Amino acid sequence: MTRRWFIGGLFTLLIVIFIGSVITGAYLFTQINMNEEFNSTKGPNKTYHIAVIVDGYHSTYSTQFKAGLDKAAAENDIALEYWDIKSNNIVEECLKQLDMAIQSKVDGVIVHAFNNEGFVEAINRAEAAGIPVVILNEDVPTSTRLTYVGINRYNIGARVAQIFQEQLPEGGNVALIEKNLYDKSVAVDNAEKVDLMLMGIQEVFSKYNTLNLSQIKYTDVGLLSAEAVTTEIINEENSIKGIFCADGQDTLGVLQVLTDFNRLNDVVIIGFDDLPEILT
Q1: CB–CB of 43/37 below 8 Å?
Q2: Is 77 left (phi over 0), alpha (psi -120 to 50) or beta?
Q3: Are 132 and 39 in contact (CB under 8 A)?
Q4: What's the pLDDT band for 187 if we cut at 50, 70, 90?
Q5: pLDDT tens string 226-243
Q6: Which of 97, 92, 120, 118 shows the shortest CA–CA distance to 109?
Q7: Where is 274: in which H helix or E strand?
Q8: Is the dihedral of CA 81, 151, 5, 222 positive or negative?
Q9: Which of 103, 99, 142 is nearest to 122 (CA)?
């Protein structure tokens, strides 16, 4: 049987993100400098101090991303302070660093954000203090953020579902594996309701009678977590036909388990990331 595992099924989107990461820095600072109140508080020859708060485990914030920021910073007399957060409690830690940035009275903040009440409150507090905030990762539309720079998770989910339809014309059950980025005290059902990627998958699947999203699993940081979740998926449903991993490290973990189970030829894998191991 022809090998059917499908790693990197979103090449078109990845290319856009890959190229976009180089120019994102320039775009972010253009957006900040367009804020009249922000510019009026500093003379053109003075250095701005910008805090950059990102997920240290997320490959989106690669050397290319930072190179774009550094280039724009050098051209605009901006001092950058990078805070790479590496924690299982990424939401809480990003909020803590955002609060520290506000207390430090920086001139602006670029932050890996989540659409929840904590970030709405913190962003509004920053803006009230005259600190413009640029949002990455998830938009927080009900806040007073300056702008959002990121991907459309709904479109990604819809594209994933379309690829599954193409690769599995006979139909079958598929599973979604995504990072657990929500407060542990919040029920999984609540997390699912605000996941636009999941919504995109489900709405496209609803157009077909052959595909079904039978399992949704959440992982913590590290390959071992993804391997444990994949083993659980196979044990619960040996006939699973496809797995979508919304994280690069998770994709590698899933690939390892399917290799161990000798299932690479009959399970379609779609991985979303630009890790070298996935692109090659």
Answers
A1: no
A2: left
A3: no
A4: very low
A5: 899 999 999 999 999 999
A6: 97
A7: none
A8: positive
A9: 99
